[in-house]
Write a structure and sequence with these properties.
About 40% of the residues lie in helices and about 0% in strands. By secondary structure, the protein is mainly alpha-helical. The protein is elongated and about 105 Å long. The N and C termini lie far apart (about 105 Å).
């Protein structure tokens, strides 16, 4: 009678993937470049977020990125003003 009331346990298998080289967990999905990204590792707390933001400001990437961004922004702004038929003559002298 005791055998019928006892629940059967889960089977455990000793499975290793076919092409597993033995480094870390084979089932953990991680991108190759995550260790170089500052946004991949989430910092909890307001102080940690501000400190990581200031560190990102110190690290400048491409020197031309700011000028490229400003040129694209001005072109998109002029296209938007042209679409809404904005009169640009108010900025220039008569």
């Amino acid at each position: 009678m005791r055998k019928f009331l006892k629940l059967r346990g889960n089977k455990s298998f000793n499975y290793t993937p076919r092409y597993y080289k033995g480094e870390g967990n084979p089932f953990k999905i991680e991108h190759k470049l995550d260790k170089f990204r500052s946004t991949a590792h989430t910092n909890r707390g307001l102080k940690n977020k501000f400190s990581s933001a200031f560190e990102d400001l110190k690290n400048e990437g491409d020197k031309n990125s700011k000028t490229r961004f400003l040129v694209i922004l001005v072109v998109l702004l002029l296209i938007f003003l042209f679409i809404i038929d904005f009169d640009l003559s108010i900025f220039f002298g008569s």
